[in-house]
């Protein structure tokens, strides 16, 4: 690949870019792309991972809560429900076997007023239908005994929820992929593609070149790669990239919405909780919750801010506004104090932000993950992974298992 790119650079003054064939190409080195690459490589495929950023996991995969979800929230038989439950089991086993930092510390979903109790009971039923074990309804006294700083009227204990060090997870999976047949090329952006003789040809450019030529439209590829199998795991950019594949039927490409989520950290106080504490879910997210990391520090978040989709170039290059506006802390104080009234004024500091990729807009019920292969869009060898929002980290190994067994057997 590197040699091909060097060659491409030398002859880039020519009209047509050089072509290369490949076995399997994974677009995007986030946790999902890496998990898929690993699974394909273990099953004997020759894998090429192309990532626009200078390294792996710089997108949503390092801008989330790092929570291993149990599988409570999602509709019965949805991909989210199935992949979360299966992925969580695979993930805990994977992390235990390889010494990847993780902790099954458990979580409490809390009702802070009696009006919320029916929602809590509905969550318990839904979780049980999804096959989540270890769910237990606690009365206020039991819950507040477990977590003395907590105030609530009822709580749902989820024993198998936990946290994982997602960076260590990605390093481990990437290493395994590379020890089979996987090559990773960073600073390499897929700028689009076209269908020729029934196959998708990927248009590829060094990321640096796109920066230089943003004004030149259309962007010119430096290299064309013709793979047998393509997994579009471009996260936030997956939908806008699919729209740049000429010859793919756009009827099947969904509309994508973005919702930012900010985190605040807590300073000057000792960690008040031993478990994850979640309120009842809100529109667009799971509510401003308490997450602990493996070093024992506490963060609160993420909130929900629906934003306009970033422009095309930002989408291609993954350049998004991840700044945290300190003034958002006002709402955090009021939300958090509903279940943690001892939160002191001035103790919240801006942390980081992530952007949720959504296939449902504000006010609509959450959409499922969307996985489309030839059976949907009719183009052999292309698999699009759309809307892989939460619980995508928890689900990554299960998504990989599904994609590899369905599209690479
Ligand atoms: C605020 C927030 C909190 C979350 N909390 C949790 C949680 O607690 N637990 C959980 O299970 N899940 C959580 N999630 C979801 C989880 O983080 C994501 O589902 C997961 O990280 C998605 O991984 P990915 O590989 O699909 O995407 P990404 O990590 O975004 O990776 C996509 C990669 O593709 C690259 N790329 C994009 N376009 C191109 C292109 N044209 N050419 C080449 N490369 C390209 C990008 O640079 C990027 O590296 C959360 C998400 C958010 C936003
Ligand atoms: C990727 O590009 C950056 C500059 O944007 C550079 O510092 C880095 O060395 C490049 N990495 C690789 C692997 O080429």
**Do you know the CATH topology of the domain at 2-61 and 168-254 and 368-407?**
FAD/NAD(P)-binding domain
Q: Please count the beta strands (DSSP E, at least 2 residues each).
A: 21
Fraction in helix: 25-40%
| Oligomer kind | single chain
Tell me which ligands are bound: flavin-adenine dinucleotide, 2-acetamido-2-deoxy-beta-D-glucopyranose
Which parts are unreliable, with pLDDT below 50 for 5 consecutive residues or more?
none
Q: In terms of structural class, how would the helical and strand content be classed?
A: alpha/beta
Distance from N terminus to C terminus (CA atoms, Å) equals 25 Å
Sheet with the most strands, sense and barrel status = 9 strands, mixed
CATH class of the domain at 2-61 and 168-254 and 368-407: Alpha Beta
Task: Tell me the CATH architecture of the domain at 2-61 and 168-254 and 368-407.
Answer: 3-Layer(bba) Sandwich
According to CATH, the homologous superfamily of the domain at 2-61 and 168-254 and 368-407 is FAD/NAD(P)-binding domain
The gross shape turns out to be globular
Round the Cα radius of gyration to an integer and report it: 22 Å
Give the overall pLDDT as a whole number.
93
Number of helices: 12
Strand content: 25-35%
């Amino acid at each position: 690949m590197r040699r091909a790119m060097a060659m491409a650079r030398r002859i880039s003054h020519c009209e047509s870019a050089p072509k290369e064939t490949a076995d399997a190409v994974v677009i995007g080195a986030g946790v999902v792309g890496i998990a898929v690459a690993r699974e394909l490589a273990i099953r004997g495929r020759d894998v090429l991972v192309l990532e626009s950023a200078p390294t792996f996991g710089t997108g949503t995969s390092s801008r989330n809560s790092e929570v291993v979800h149990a599988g409570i929230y999602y509709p019965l038989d949805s991909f989210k429900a199935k992949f979360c439950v299966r992925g969580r089991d695979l993930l805990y086993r994977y992390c235990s076997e390889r010494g990847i930092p993780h902790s099954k510390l458990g979580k409490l979903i809390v009702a802070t007023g009696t009006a919320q109790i029916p929602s809590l009971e509905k969550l318990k039923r839904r979780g049980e239908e999804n096959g989540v074990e270890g769910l237990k309804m606690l009365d206020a006294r039991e819950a507040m005994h477990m977590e003395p700083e907590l105030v609530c009227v009822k709580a749902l204990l989820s024993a198998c929820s936990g946290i994982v060090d997602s960076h260590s997870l990605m390093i481990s999976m990437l290493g395994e992929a590379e020890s089979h047949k996987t090559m990773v090329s960073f600073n390499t952006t897929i700028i689009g593609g076209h269908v020729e003789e029934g196959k998708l040809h990927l248009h590829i450019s060094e990321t640096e070149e796109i920066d230089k030529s943003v004004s030149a439209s259309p962007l010119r590829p430096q290299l064309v790669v013709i793979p047998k199998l393509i997994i579009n795991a471009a996260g936030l950019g997956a939908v806008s990239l699919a729209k740049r594949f000429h010859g793919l039927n756009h009827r099947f490409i969904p509309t994508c919405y973005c919702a930012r989520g900010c985190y605040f950290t807590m300073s000057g106080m000792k960690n008040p909780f031993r478990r994850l504490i979640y309120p009842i879910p809100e529109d667009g997210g799971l509510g401003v919750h308490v997450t602990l990391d493996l070093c024992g520090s506490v963060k609160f978040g993420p909130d929900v801010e629906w934003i306009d989709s970033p422009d095309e170039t930002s989408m291609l290059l993954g350049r998004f506004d991840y700044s945290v506006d300190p003034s958002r802390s006002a709402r955090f104080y009021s939300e958090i104090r509903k279940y943690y009234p001892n939160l002191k004024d001035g103790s919240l500091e801006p942390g980081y932000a992530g952007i949720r990729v959504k296939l449902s807009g504000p006010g609509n019920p959450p959409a499922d993950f969307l996985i489309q292969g030839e059976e949907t869009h009719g183009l052999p060898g292309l698999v699009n992974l759309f809307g892989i929002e939460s619980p995508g980290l928890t689900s990554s190994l299960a998504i990989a298992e599904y994609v590899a067994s369905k599209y690479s057997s």
